[in-house]
């Protein structure tokens, strides 16, 4: 395991890297085949890539598709919206045989042939492999091989890249991966160097969620930007991005994954009594989430569209009377607690504001864009628009999700492992490259240096002003030079 102090040290080194600015940002939406009906109403123009999920291989390598799914009509919908359509292999319950398939030459080549056949038949733009997870158990039924999965996967991807490029010479196909918060495991710990993988695939989509949930021993955010100061679990959005970059994956080939759902858990006490800490005692009880959470044991999932549609959230940041919304300045995530006596229901989720802060962080790290699980869970485009908002601050050509002159990993990475991390207002950190040393509130996000003329603007990131740049050839948009959400402070 990489220690946090190693990550912090490596994070400092990253300051010297020039971010990639060449391409437009990408927005990758997963399209669950069992949600085809809901997907019909999703505005896929908001996405650049849509991954149809999932197909799974048998041991033989034969790819099995959901028979009731109309692939042709889905691909048409995606292409009509101007997005690329990929087929995603695996997923949580479809990864059972991948370890075997990539280790066995005849199964491996069968899977490749089946894939190529599907790409041809449906005019797909590529394949996404969501193996959960190389070198680790994942779902209980999965086979895995702690020593060989990761090297086998590398070898398999080498063959896949060569053959897919040879077969589709005139119309290059994409190969992408969905990956966990830590690089692929070898012998029980994350690989230190995954740079060879990045040379074979186009993008890795980081699944930066499901970090806390009903399965854990405490309540806690589904997707904290930074680890909670009071948490045992130090997994976070920022630590996961650092882990992949430190293991040699170029940031311009990574996307930051966002969950368009939250999770309900059953606390044991009134959490409002200690609202500065989101990690509190909970029961093991699996409580029901939204109207779609009908199968027991319940998942506790609350899709954004149901948090909004069922009226728990009356706007993106106001609640029905039965609930109170809290803002956690450490993990920079909102959470809800039920007001009724003895109800004790806690819901962690992301909203437009927490997404914007994560997007700013991801762009400061030079990532290529965002990934979403899943596109059907949005409400009137609120969350995908929050992703794209960052992009909309810049105008005139290439765009780019990226570029900065150094928002301070020095203040983002917890120094000793026990320090609070994210928002520091105690003046203990120096500003780092470009920013002044004065503290600011994350609620005030944006000032444009010379709207319509210059690319530079300022955001408040981790409690410090950070100088950002629109990418090459673009300028900061005129008008609306400040974007104040008014709730950067803790409740
Ligand atoms: C794995 O392969 C076995 C044997 O071919 C098959 O029965 C099983 O359904 C496959 N698992 C998945 C998740 O497709
Ligand atoms: C808590 O309140 C919610 C909504 O008000 C309700 O659906 C849920 O059943 C309640 N839970 C308990 C344990 O009372
Ligand atoms: C909710 O967001 C709006 C618009 O961004 C803002 O004006 C308002 O102050 C926020 N309300 C709360 C309770 O945070």
Automatic annotation (TrEMBL):
One Pfam family cited in the UniProt record for this chain: Glyco_hydro_18
Signal peptide: 1-23
GO biological-process terms attached to the record: chitin catabolic process; polysaccharide catabolic process
A single GO molecular function term of this UniProt record: endochitinase activity
Biased segments, Low complexity type: 409-422
Annotated keywords: Carbohydrate metabolism, Chitin degradation, Glycosidase, Hydrolase, Polysaccharide degradation, Signal
Domain GH18: 25-394
Region of interest (Disordered), residue spans: 388-434
SUPFAM superfamilies: (Trans)glycosidases
Catalysed reactions listed for this entry: Random endo-hydrolysis of N-acetyl-beta-D-glucosaminide (1->4)-beta-linkages in chitin and chitodextrins
Protein name: GH18 domain-containing protein
Family of the protein in this entry: Belongs to the glycosyl hydrolase 18 family.
